[in-house]
Amino acid sequence: MPVHYAAADPGEKISERSQDTPRREFLYLATAATTAIGLASLAWPFIDQMNPSSDVIAAGGPVTVDLSKMQPGQQIVVTWRGRPIFIVHRTPETLAALKSSSMLDRLRDPQSQVLQQPPYAANWSRSVKPELAVLVGICTHLGCIPTYRPTVAADWPGGYLCQCHGSKYDLAGRVFRGVPAPYNLPVPPYRYENDATLVIGDNPPGGEFSLDDVEQL
CA 73: distance to chain centroid? Predict the structure, then answer.
C-alpha cells in the first residue's frame, strides 16, 4: 500500500518564521546596545581625561599676536585669561609727551613705583619696546574697560578714559591725579618671539612675573 505523507501547512511555516524573525532582530539589537553601553562606560574615563580641566582653562596659556601690520597710533585688543589686553603702537610724538614734565606732574605714580608691571617694564615707557605698549585694559577703580582716546585736545592730553567714573590714564597706562582709580593699569607678562611677534602670558628668559603679583587688577 502506498504510503501517503501529510504535507505540512505552508501557512503555518510562514507564520512561525514571521514571528521568529522580529524576535531574533530584537535580541540582536538588545545585545548590541548593551555591548555599546558597556564599552562606552569603560571608555568614558579615558575620554574625560583628554578634556582640559576647569582650572587649566581658567589659567589660560600664552597668546601669540602678529604685530607686522600695526601702524603708528593704532591700538589692537586681544583677550588673555578672559581679560582685554591693549596693544598700542605709540608715535614718536606720544613717546616725547610721556617723558615731558607737564605730563609727569599730572600723574599719581609717574615713576611706576607701585608694583603694577614686571621688572622689565618698570621704566619710563612701562614697556619692553618704547614704541609698543602692552596693558591690561581694566580700570583699577571698579573694573570697567577704559576707552582709547589718543588724540590730544585742549583739555585732554591723550590716553585712556574710563567712562564709568571718569578715571584717566596716559598712553603708558599711568593714572592721573584726582581720579577714582588708585593705580596704573597693570602690564601683563610678555615677551617678543621676534620683531613682529608678541607672546602675552610668557616672560622673557629669567623672568618670573605673574599678574598675581600686581597690587591691584
Answer: 24
Query: Which amino acid is present at 196?
Result: A
Nearest to 114 by CA among 46, 164, 187, 60: 187
Residue-wise DSSP of 95-154: HHHHH-HHHHTTBSSTT--SS-S-GGG-STTSSSSTTEEEEE---TTT---PEEE---BT
DSSP classification of residue 46: H
Q: In degrees rounded to 5, what are phi and psi of residue 149? A: -135, 80
pLDDT of residue 129: 97
* CATH classification number, 57-213, choose in 2.102.10.10, 3.10.180.10, 2.30.30.50, 1.25.40.620: 2.102.10.10
HSE-up of 140 (CA within 13 Å, CB side)? 24
Residue environment code for 89-109, b if the CB has 16+ CB neighbours within 10 A, otherwise e:
bbbeebeebbeeeebeebbbe
Give residue 154's pLDDT.
Answer: 81
Q: Which residue has the higher pLDDT, 29 or 180?
A: 180
C-alpha to C-alpha distance for 200 and 189, rounded to whole angstroms? 6
